[in-house]
Structures are given as C-alpha cells and as structure tokens.
Design a protein that fits this description.
Layout (H helix, E strand, L loop, with lengths): L13 H17 L9 E5 L5 E3 L15 E3 L5 E3 L8 H10 L5 E5 L2 H9 L9 H7 L4 E2 L7 H7 L8 E4 L3 E6 L2 H24 L7 H14 L23 H25 L18
Parallel strand pairs: 6-7
Antiparallel strand pairs: 1-2, 1-5, 2-3, 3-4, 5-8, 7-8
The structure holds zinc ion (ZN).
Zinc ion binds next to loops.
Length: 287
C-alpha cells in the first residue's frame, strides 16, 4: 500500500509529500521505533504550511488523507483529524533551524533506553556517528506538549541534528524527510552498538586525531547554507555511571571539534551571515 522507498528532496508535490509521510510512518512502526500511536512526523509544504501526522493513530495505519495541515503557529488549516500535541516541538525546530524541512519523533527502544537512563550518546565510538551526527546530546526531561519541553530542547536544536529526550524518546530532523528518517535509524543503531560495548565491558574510543579527520569529512558533507547559531549552551551528559577520564576528555575533544566545524561554517557564510529567516518562522511562539 505504502511505497517501499522515497527519495531525497523537499521539492515535491503535496501528494508525494503525503505519500512520503505515510511511508516513513510505516518504516518507524515496522522497526519498532513507534509502537501503538507513538511518534509523529512533519514536513514543510511551503513558506506557510506544515504537513503533519495526526494524533492518536498508529503510524503504520495512516493514509494520505489522514494527515493534517497547519500553519507555523500550529493553527489547523485542513484535515479531519487533529494534529499531534507534540507538533509544537516540530514548529520550534522549524523556527530555530530554517535549513530544516522535515522532523521525525519516535521512541526507538535502545536509544530511548539510553534517554531513560540519562545517558547521552556523545562518545566517539563509531565513525558514522561522528561523521553523520557529531554527537547526540540528551535534553533534560520536559512534559510533552508543554513549554517545559521546548525550553529543554531549544538550546540543543541549533547545533545538533538528533537529540535524545530524557525519559521520552528521540527527535531527528533534516533538509528532507528521508534525511530525518535515516538519522533516526542512525541514532538507534549507534545506541545499539553503545549498548553492546557496555555488555562487553569495554569501549575503545576513536583517537583525537581520528575524530579530527572525521570532523573534516563531516564538514565537507554539511550543508554550507546552515545558519550560524548564537546559542551554544549545551547540557552536560547526564549519567549516573562512572565516567572515566578518557571518555570525558574525548567528549571535550568532540565538543571542541564541533565548535571548530561550526566556526568554519560561519566563516564560509560570511558576508551572507545571518541570512534572512523566512518570516513564517520568526513569529512562532514556543508552545
Ligand atoms: Zn513522544
């Protein structure tokens, strides 16, 4: 019923976007990332409309007609069902990241287990983690659908593409829906590998020099048009495990490499720094 593949790209017809959201909903469900009616998906339809999955519906059972359209203030424009109460989180991400056109939120069990244990995925244990996502921070708990959640996520959104949400789940986003979904898969894969290293009792972290090389590769893959962030406030990894000195050092190096990569991105953006943000994203209240 749903297509088995979707393509990259945010410039599609509304019919194609609706089909893509249903496909991603099906994938999230079949991978166990979104059970029952968990999870939500959205994408930007244009400068003033958001297409989103509805509330209280299995992501595997959605049809294109079940989706809802809202503006960037969250006002429903069309659709017979209601949007998710977590739509405000999506709108916050669109406001803070004008380069983002799609958001996936789900509860993949191993990554969510880390979030429930207060463990960020911020150690350089895998090259694809460093290249693809840099690090995956942990946002403090915020009740879904409230400003508390927005306040927990907001400092992390500008400089990360995937965030663990304490005692809740994961949110990923990107320039198109396929990118957002693939990042969700990467988060869960990295969480799985991290768990295996914990079971084996050993984590062999990438060396500082290899992290630097990987960040060089990451910088080449990053979207050069990504706007600079003025807010680099980050949350410390919240872990009740003993954190050894090497891991702490590696995390600091990863943070430093992230800062350096962002600084390079910013310098490339000049003189077009502070690109004009689409007005639709400048007035969205944090809900
Ligand atoms: Zn959720």
């Amino acid at each position: 019923m749903h297509p088995h593949s979707i393509s990259h790209g945010a410039t599609k017809s509304e019919i194609e976007h609706r089909s893509d959201i249903c496909a991603v909903g099906s994938w999230l469900h079949e991978r166990g990332f979104a059970v029952a009616t968990d999870g939500n998906i959205s994408l930007c339809l244009g400068p003033d409309r958001v297409l989103a999955s509805p509330t209280c519906m299995s992501k595997s059972m959605m049809t294109p007609d079940d989706l809802v359209v809202t503006d960037f203030q969250g006002n429903q424009l069309s659709g017979t069902r209601r949007p998710s109460s977590e739509l405000g989180m999506h709108l916050l991400i669109y406001r803070l990241r004008p380069d983002v056109s799609a958001v996936c939120h789900a509860h993949p069990p191993i990554a969510t287990g880390h979030a429930a244990a207060g463990i960020a995925l911020d150690r350089p244990i895998l090259c694809e983690l460093v290249i693809g996502l840099g690090r995956i921070p942990l946002a403090r708990f915020g009740t879904p659908g409230t400003p508390e959640l927005a306040e927990a996520l907001a400092p992390l959104i500008p400089d990360h593409d995937a965030i663990l949400m304490a005692n809740h789940g994961v949110v990923t986003y990107g320039e198109d829906l396929l990118t957002a979904f693939l990042r969700m898969e990467t988060v869960e894969h990295c969480a799985h590998v991290s768990l295996v290293t914990e079971i084996l009792g050993k984590q062999q972290l990438l060396s500082d020099s290899n992290v630097q090389k990987l960040f060089g590769a990451r910088a080449r893959y990053r979207n050069n048009s990504r706007p600079a962030s003025s807010n680099l406030v980050d949350l410390p990894a919240q872990s009740d495990r003993g954190v050894d000195d090497r891991a702490t050092h590696a995390r600091r190096k990863l943070d430093t490499a992230t800062e350096e990569t962002l600084a390079k991105d910013r310098s490339r953006l000049r003189p077009a720094e502070n690109p004009p943000r689409r007005s639709r994203r400048s007035t969205i209240p944090i809900r």
